[in-house]
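We modelled the chain as a single entity of 352 amino acids. Its sequence is:
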Amino acid sequence: MQQATEPPGIKFPELSPLLSLCTTYGLGGESAVLPETEWNASNFANLVAFRMCGNALAAVPRATVPEPWRSQLMSSVGAEVTHGRGLLGRAVDFQELLSSAGIRSLAVKGLAVADLHPTSVPRRFADVDLLVPQGQYLQAISFLHRKGYRPLTRPWSDKQIARMMPSVNFEAADGRQLDLQRYLGSWALGRRVDFDEAYERARTITIGDRQLKATGLPDTMITTALSMLADYGTGYEKLWPWRDLVVLSEQASPDEVAEICERTELSWVLHDVLLALPEGARPDELVARLARRPPSRADQLRRRMLLETPPRWRRAFGHMMRLPPLGGAEFFIDLVRQHFEKIDRTPRPPSP
């Protein structure tokens, strides 16, 4: 048990005040009563975002939520429901489009997580992320290109994009966007989630008379942790993914999640991320199961690079680990080349 509670895991000093706030004022169905002087848009939004129970409006009684925060919350909930329904329809369109070319795909990240959240507290997601088999990544890029989708990246060829980008964002003529993923998180870790196995474990989301395939609950937990670890220190100080993990772990079977993590050698990833949760929200049984499988020596090095480097270098390490070695080197060379090309094009005064 000692290893399950005090190993070197993710440390988020910038989250400490917010985690303390959530712990102090209660999780689950307890009331969150803050002094009047402490109410502001930031701490209210974070507190509600980190609420682990079913209905946020019930968890934060009317008497404890001064206006205009309560009205804003109710308006926000309605807007999120409407926005989410629209994106679900787009996701089905994209999945059916890829399927017409024989390309399988799975909805991942925000969309996959949102479906597992209580309907009374919708989980916001801003775009559609689809994971495709690595062997069909280039085929999917070329197919979308032929269909008129424009990649929102440098003017590379399809093969260059496939070599150098772990994902590519496409935009249709009508402005709809699709983020095509070949793996989540870093190249070394994300590839361990076998697409065929994840596809077999996938769940079906029903939207009217249409269906969308998304990652199953265990795979959604793992891919969420992979994304958080890869982006550690680059924006995941937001509380949305933390609430995601708690909501998912409340529904997951520790044995099933631990078994999949062990097969993919990703136990330490989910273990380290879950340890950052405060007591009362942390799934201790699952954490203890995951602690039984320590990381390999190579993964210990990756862990140190990601978690123990100074903050000013952490972002660079995270981006370096996202790409395959050769693709990362080519990406770096391209950046340097573009930098010097810009310098060469700088107007110079004429020689005397």
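As a brief sanity check on the tokenised model: The chain is about 50% helix and 10% strand. The first strand starts at residue 106 and ends at 107.
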